[in-house]
């Protein structure tokens, strides 16, 4: 068994999703749900997508992801067909930012193939002397981490 994720719907009342990239070692894939409490086990959706073998390099065979974000005032989610791997990209934007965009052709020609729609926008601080701060809270089992990136 390869434990992947524990989902606690009492803590995530608005739902959740878990993404994994797994390189199978055979022509079959087994998914196992383990009951750990007095709850009903469920999978509301299971989506499988083919990827190129060199898209994400891993020695363990599996990669778990938290999220994919793109900078935009839009509240739209980007996924297939704009993302060939059907990753789910959510927009991220602060009210103290100014969005900058391009109508030029955007190149996404690398093995990760990010969606062009996610690469067309960027942000600068509305106040030119302020840093561009990006914060993301990540819930990892019972630990909450906050990552901050600063541009001076």
TrEMBL record:
As for membrane topology, the entry says: Single-pass membrane protein
User: What is its subcellular localisation?
Assistant: Membrane
Keyword Amino-acid biosynthesis: yes or no?
no
By its UniProt entry, which Pfam families does this protein fall under? Malectin_like
Query: Locate the Malectin-like domain: which residues?
Result: 1-138
Q: Which UniProt keywords apply?
A: Kinase, Membrane, Receptor, Signal, Transferase, Transmembrane, Transmembrane helix
GO CC list: membrane
Q: Which GO terms describe its molecular function?
A: kinase activity
This chain belongs to the protein called Putative LRR receptor-like serine/threonine-protein kinase
Q: Which organism is it from?
A: Noccaea caerulescens
Organism lineage string: Eukaryota, Viridiplantae, Streptophyta, Embryophyta, Tracheophyta
